[in-house]
Design goal:
The chain is mostly helical and about 525 residues long. The chain has helices spanning about 5-25, 35-40, 45-70, 75-105, 110-120, 125-155, 160-210, 215-220, 245-255, 265-270, 280-310, 320-325, 325-335, 340-380, 385-405, 415-440, 445-465, 475-495, 500-515; strands at about 230-235, 240. Helix 3 runs antiparallel to helix 10 (about 265-270), helix 4 (about 75-105) packs across helix 10 and helix 14 (about 340-380) crosses helix 15 (about 385-405). The protein starts with a helix and ends with a helix.
């Protein structure tokens, strides 16, 4: 192992060790399943804001987004980032406070249990289906994180991808299983800081290597269509290609709709200690998201300029699976400039781990809660003690992590995996969540129809309709979200209105939200 690799490894080991320490520390205060899944609703506004956004960004921020910008220009990542930024803001603005009040009013500690208790679903159909949706889409989502970790370590140290992925998965599972929600949220807060530092280091170093921002800008401008917001860049032909016009832009911005249905983000809204502090969280979280995504896109542009200058190899002609390594390649180059730069490169690598781990831990918690809390106790009605429930929660988390590791056993594109899982959650839960919070006439049948129809349409559109091309090639989240919303509204209107106690709870939460 070279000196550079040793320095990088030291930084990573220190970082990972600290994460495990936090998990062990919070295990002492995790006394029951409520603490494990929601932290007792005691999180402060800054931890809520940054843990929500860090768990949202995942490896997509430091690997996927720069990789897409490197490979195809700024059109797709610009509209994606803009849609996500707008979605972030409105999710905090209209969903967070009302969901915090509503979840406490009905006594829900998970997203499926919120739907179940919101509609007084005595048969627990909503609970069971929502829990299955979470498991179905979180396994591949978590697998994308394990995938990113494996890619990172295998490229850094030349070790087998599968071995690297499994080691990373074990570390994530250990600190999450020990400390639960409090550990995940606190580490996410720290990881958001590490991610920010990594982005700044890579951006500054990359720009300096190419000769400065002006050289980077000149190189990007010289590529036909690379800086266009209405065309994508074709690196093979060095020419622009159609991005689908207005429809393509709207389709890409539809990423923002996904926020309304992301369980690991919605849980943060439910966990804040004081609903009135959400305004602070909204400002902090939204600003960070816009800045972080903008820097990530620029890093892709810088990386391509570095390739042109011969500083790093050509990553563009094998698609995003290769181009998503752009930050890794820049950090490897940084490590060759001495001991201190090598330690900084280690911080960058830790940043990639941070954005990956911050999402994996939240996803594992949400998925394990769906099995142990919602399915076993809610649907099947198992009567167990809080201590036993906590043990089941940890065992369930481990089992789900095993399935995610099996899914991630082969290296693939982070961006592709995340986009599918994002669409699944956004279409299954997003329309139902909005109707649940803002439309009193919504009933359990409408919620069921919207959840099942939206989730099913993601598969139908992606695998049956989208291959037809043309107008049908839009991102599956948009048609699936609209279809789920339509079903929720229509079915609610043609079936009996909710019972009086459901309507009364809605009015009470509405009054609280206006305070």
């Amino acid at each position: 192992m070279t000196r550079d690799q040793i320095c990088i490894l030291i930084a990573i080991v220190i970082y990972l060790g600290f994460m495990v320490y936090l998990g062990a520390r919070y295990s002492k205060s995790t006394k029951d399943s409520s603490d494990f899944y929601l932290g007792g609703r005691k999180l402060g506004p800054y931890v809520v804001a940054m843990s929500a956004e860090a768990s949202d960004m995942s490896s997509w921020l430091l690997l996927g987004l720069p990789g897409v910008a490197y490979f195809s220009g700024i059109c797709e990542p610009f509209w994606t980032a803009l849609g996500l930024g707008i979605g972030t803001y409105f999710n905090w603005l209209i969903v967070a406070k009302r969901l915090r009040y509503y979840s406490e009013e009905v006594g829900a500690v998970t997203v499926p249990s919120f739907f179940d208790k919101r509609f007084k679903d005595k048969n627990h159909l909503l609970l069971g289906i929502a829990a299955l949706v979470i498991v179905v889409f979180f396994v591949p989502y978590t697998a994308s994180g394990f995938n990113a970790c494996g890619t990172l370590f295998s490229s850094l140290f030349g070790i087998d991808y599968l071995t690297a992925m499994l080691i990373s998965a074990v570390v994530i599972v250990v600190y999450t299983a020990l400390g639960g929600f409090n550990a995940a949220s606190t580490t996410d807060f720290i990881q958001s800081i590490v991610m920010s530092i990594a982005l700044i280091i890579v951006l500054c170093f990359g720009a300096a290597v190419t000769g400065g921002p002006s050289v980077v800008a000149e190189h990007a401008a010289s590529l036909d269509g690379y800086l266009s917001l209405i065309t994508a860049y074709d690196p093979a032909a060095n020419a622009p290609v159609s991005y689908g016009g207005i429809l393509g832009i709207v389709s890409t911005m539809a990423w923002g709709l996904g926020y309304f249905g992301m369980p690991h983000i919605l849980l943060r809204f439910m966990a804040i200690r004081d609903p009135e502090e959400i305004k602070v969280s909204r400002r902090v979280g939204t600003i960070w998201v816009f800045i972080a995504m903008a820097v990530a896109v620029v890093i892709g542009i810088v990386g391509l300029a570095m390739t042109s200058a011969g500083a790093i190899g050509d990553l563009g002609f094998n698609g995003t699976t290769s181009s998503q390594r752009v930050i890794i390649e820049i950090a490897n180059l940084l490590a060759t400039h001495g001991i201190f730069p090598a330690l900084l490169a280690g911080v960058v690598m830790a940043g990639i781990l941070a954005c990956t781990m911050s999402t994996c831990d939240s996803q594992l918690l949400a998925a394990s809660s769906s099995v142990s809390e919602d399915i076993l106790q809610g649907v099947f009605g198992l009567k167990i003690s809080q201590k036993t429930a906590l043990v089941i929660a940890r065992v369930t988390l481990l089992i789900i992590a095993v399935f995610a590791a099996i899914w991630a056993r082969e290296e693939g594109s982070v961006f592709t995996i995340v986009s599918f899982a994002w669409a699944g959650f956004g279409a299954s839960f997003g329309p139902v969540m909005l109707c649940s919070l803002f439309w009193k006439r919504t009933n359990r049948w409408g919620a069921l129809a919207g959840m099942i129809g939206g989730g099913a349409m993601v598969f139908v559109w992606k695998y049956l309709v989208k291959p037809l091309g043309g107008l049908f090639s839009i991102y599956e989240l948009l048609p699936a979200f609209l279809f789920g919303l339509l079903l929720c509204v229509v079915v609610s209107l043609v079936t009996p209105a909710p019972q009086a106690e459901v309507a009364e709870a809605f009015d009470k939460v509405k009054a609280l939200n206006k305070k």
